[in-house]
Amino acid sequence: MTVEDGDPEFTKAIEEQLSVVTAWWEPGPAPGGGFVQTVLRAPEERHDVERFLHTSGIREAAEDEALVLYITSHGAVGTSTRHFLLLPSTDTDRLLATGMPTNEVVIAALDSQARHVLVIVNACEAEGIDAELRALARDLARSGTPEGTLNVVATTATRSPVLGREFAVVLRRAFEWLQDAAGVARPYLSISEFIQALEQATERLNEERGLTLAGPRTVLQGKLGAPTPTLPNPGYRPKPQVVTQAREEVAATPEELEYWLDRASGRASSDDPGWYFSGRQELNRELTSFVTGPAGVLIVTGIAASGKSAVLARAVTLSDSAFRASPRYADAVRKAPADSVPDEGSIHVAVSARNRRPLSLIKAIGSRLGCEQDRAQPATDALRQWQEGLRTFFTTFQEGTVTVVVDGLDESPDAVACIRDVLVPLAAYAGGPDTASRVSVPAQAASSPSSVRPPAHGGLRLLLGVRSSSPGTPEAAAATGVRGLLQELQNAFPAAQVVRTDGEGMQADIAAYAAALLAGAAWCNDPAMITSAAERVARHVGRSFLDARLASEQLRRADGATLLSDPLWLSQLDRGTAGLFEQDLNQVTDDGLHREEALALLRATAFGLGRGIPWAQVWPAVASELLQARLDHADEKIRRLLGGRLAGYLTHDIEDDHVVYRPAHEQLGLMLRRWPQETRRALDESG
Asked: What pTM does this model have?
């Protein structure tokens, strides 16, 4: 609803506000989707507003409808402290007779049947509705309804004029900020997230224009943190569901799959489904053979960046029924070597141990398998409850052998405890009764009637991913401790098979990988030249798929033939990840960024806990601390970073309903945390 006073500038401000409001609360593409928009423009007198409330159906809004009422007008607070909307026919000496009591409009929405209501009042002295509204709210039949969200927002403080174009700017900037920087990953916002976005936009406007606007505030609010359908999230992008939830932590991401489908479509032969589906054939055959065989344990290990997680991700993805049912991927699955494609459903659960301690890891495995905690165990010992719950599951399971994948054991903050308290209790089911006699199971009394029993049926295949040092380099193992973690697993599972991703033939695999990345490069349409370039990259990067990817991306962006003959570039390539990163960092001005600021932004992501660092105010604040200076226009610089040459150094995830960012590989994280001190030594130790 709008109330205009005839001033052309005020009319323009109203139109600017409405353009943002109608974009935010837009109609849906399908019948019944989105919002139905009804606008009252320039009412002349109080009766016009009352008729609108009657004819618009606001008071009769249904229970399952989300109702949003936006009011923009001049206004005033009378001597009675009651707030009025000022209409063209309003006599300010007779507000009771000629003005429109603002709360009558607000209450019309709040007292409807709609469970979810949002009212925004943008008027002079809008905060003046507060006292009367709180009194009236006591008469609302549903004021205490727990499942509803009734929120009223006032944009101006007492004795403050209506915000015309200023509020249009605030709304638009809040809308834009919520599209990316806020990082909210669900379809609806909470009122606290909405107010935070408005406050952030108001602060920016104040800084730029030297203003002192107080910013919007809630005068009536429901649950602060509860998402409400009255606040659609402009930044929500439904995540493609490529695989089922039980496997998605380890499976390939939709972005990775699309990347390789694009690469495959550019190949000279339509029979080549791309590196992701056809590369590293021997390793893929070994994993496929394992997940279709008897119970047992297979450990996939290798130095950092040797492709361990990628090999596991491929097996997990190709085994998923939802993935295989998708017409988009069916052709690539069909063209992949048949003996490297796991049977559908052969992997039941796949989880990552990254940043997980024993309880979190065992809960992730157990809940995805569909088993329950054993509530007969002490409530204070949740770990024991899950151990017993899994024990019950495997002794009663009747549908063949179960396959569980656990990747990233080296990325757990308590990896040894995860092995001892989560994996070792499963030993009997992964290796039969002989294993049970060799392996002690913690957290269980010897006389317990539920002591380890051989599996009732097929048992368990346990597929484990862990980084280790390079074979034959005990010095590196002693320095990093990761060889010890591999040894812990071999001690726990003496009969386990071990497959290395950094063994013989790896250079040929890396050359094939680089060739797939370089296919279709603008500077070359000669397959023989691409093959030669890929082989040269493979010779320089050693056993790092990460470095091969970074080098290939640099070759694609530039004139690859020139770079390959440049001694300086080749020397940077010989330095590995650090050298390639410096090369990209030195050219970041092409993306409109300063080198030191870009470095600080990237380094900030390496210090995030959990799955990564959220954008919002956190990423800029951490970057400023690392920079030891204020990072001006931080959001715009992050946007440039994510759209530029350094974007490939980052990946994103979702944690607590928010998008978070972290280095694309733990080796990059290690490098960024130690940059520039000890960077070379740190990278040497990681491999």
From this structure: 0.83
